Amino acid sequence: MNDSTKDSQELIKDLGKAGDGLSSGRAFFLRYLGFPLLNSIISWERALDIFEKEGEKVLFLARSMKKDKLFERVLVPKLFGLEDNSRYYSVAMVIEHLIIVGSALKKRIPLLSQGKNLDKEIKIEDYKPYMEIDETIIDQYEIFLHSFRKEVEENVDNIYLENRHEHPWFGELKAKDWSVMGAIHQMVHRRQIEAIIRGL
What we know:
This protein is mainly alpha-helical and 200 residues long. The chain has a two-stranded antiparallel ribbon with strand order 1-4. It has a two-stranded antiparallel sheet with strand order 2-3. α3 runs parallel beside α6 and α4 runs parallel beside α5. It is globular.
């Protein structure tokens, strides 16, 4: 097991707090311009395609690394869609985060499509990978990724149902919107992994 909280506490201290979000300008752009535009042109099926393809890229990148580098943290430059607190991760931490978020989406999307309410407020800080991460993290992600689409599709009812739940950055989202958000999330963190590898 690798503890992702022990190393370089000084760097962590200098970053923003978990859940601080994006700068006001970027947050405004994403919430009112960027995300609505992408949401209007990415279909439900295309969102699932992107989720899978970006996940396969993540697997390829992770498997191409030496094992001892997988858990080495790198401070990456500011990336669009990545809050400051998330800039100092290892590739293993990014993958753990993708599993945490993806597992939540796998439950959230079907429930919203079925007209059910989600009672729990979503807080970005609850999805951080500051924990012990198992050596088998890549295999765990592969299993998760290859089951995601099937499990979601088997359990959705009306993906366009006007039943929404608040995302702290993007506002009130229905099931289809959450699927698009998930696809974009995969893209952002695949780019983060590429930046980490460049910095090793």
